[in-house]
Amino acid sequence: MATDQDIRQAVSSLDEKWDNPPTRNSLFGNILKSVEVENIRGLNVTLEFTWPVTAVGGINGAGKTTLIQIASCAYIKNVGGRYYKLGDWIRSALEGESPAVTLPAHVGFTFWDETSSFDIPYDLKRTRWNYPRRENPERYVEFIGIAAFAPRIERRDRTHVFRNRLQITDTQVFDPREVESISKILGTPYEQAKLHTVSTPRGEWSETLPELSRQGANYSEPHMGAGEQKIVRLVHNLESLPPKSFILLEEPEITLHPDAQRGLAWYLMTLSRRKGHQIIIATHSPEIFEALPSKARVLLVRDRDGRPEILHNVRYLSVARELSSQVRTNNDLILVEDPVAKTMLLEVFRRHGRELLLNTAIIPIGNTDDIQRMVTLFRSQGVQAVGVRDPDIGDNPNDGMFSLPGNLSPEQTLLHEENIVAAASYVDGLQDAFERAKMHGLGFDGSKKAKKIFEVLPHEARLTKELLADRLTLAWLNRNNDNARQLVADIKEKLLI
């Protein structure tokens, strides 16, 4: 089973490759940087990819599948495999059906290396997409949809129905690395995995059938659990792809236990680092979404009028649901950068702003620019909304933007040596835990260092992240009451509470 340490190591190892431009370009090649979509299925958005593995989350109907379908069309020519065109996904409307495309419509792609960006406009007269005639980028593309690994027993195909008539004509033994990956994803130690080619005695057809060995027992696909079957075939499929492939996965978490979903996120990061793949995942899984670093998380949300918007660097997948539900119930919104800021603000409200505690929803968005954008958008639609960003950004009350007290990030503020000493009265052994956690911040400065320490301090202190932040905030509040009280007054004035 992939542990938190395994996931942190996978992120760190991939960062080493990605953060070095010459290494990045050599390993990943013409990796996709952004997709701009205009007037396709109601989408007018730009999706940015700032890491080689990206999770795209959101509620049903937000546009996740449409976006990864469109992204699959960034590479026009195939390299030994199939490729996708916009016409494969965006079809003409049936009689009486709203069209999928309205004018003007286009798709634009940019890339991380020197590959030229290009646009694909829609030609209404010819009812087709006008692709460039020359110099189209090449990359092997693999799109794996939700129906790719339906359980064999549910398909009732020939390998299940005519099982007693089959014979094995060939056997391929999985590479030990594949077996190790399958074991770690599923949290079960498998000794061996094989892929049999089976056929009838007359050889009218053939099919592949995986087999696992576990604790001395051998069993093939029809006797596997649905999650086992999916992971065995998925891992074997992905390991067989050529280097620098572009892989798009649609809801791969289906049939998987939450621990296995986290294991899959770990595996995809290690695979990307080993083979230079770019991987995009459309998902409803918090485990997959939140196992990736914040820069790898993209969220689609709907505004009050139902239009899709994209948020980058979001901490929690639940933000999409929270934003949607709170806008519908007309609660006032307070958008913050991260859960630490939310915890600090909740404690401030408990002490100085009971009305805000009862009548607002505090939602971590993740990206300071997205906070500004969403506050402006919601306020233009009549939603009472303000943003509270980190202290180093500054206030802009006229636009509904405020800052937490101080001049440091929330993590730096709460982990200041003076605050750790003060909070030790609430948490026994906190100072010793802090000294151990500081080792994980070596090599970093400022906010990055504090965030690294904050990641591991809850484990060292044997507390949840939320409880640790709460105790540290209590200690901080005891010395910053006046600033906290003023922030509450400013927010109340803006929200008319």
Describe the structure.
- The chain has 497 residues and is α/β, with parallel strands linked by helices.
- Helix content is 40%, strand content 23%.
- It has helices at 4-18, 21-28, 64-71, 86-89, 152-155, 158-161, 176-186, 226-239, 258-275, 286-291, 318-328, 339-352, 354-359, 368-380, 410-414, 417-423, 430-437, 446-461, 465-477, 481-495, and strands at residues 32-40, 43-48, 53-58, 101-111, 118-123, 128-129, 141-144, 167-173, 192-199, 206-214, 217-220, 246-250, 278-283, 297-302, 308-312, 332-336, 360-364, 385-389, 401-403.
- The strands form four sheets. Strands 7-12-13-3-14-15 form a six-stranded mixed beta sheet, with helices on both faces. A five-stranded antiparallel beta sheet has the order 2-1-4-5-6, covered by helices on one side.
- It is globular.
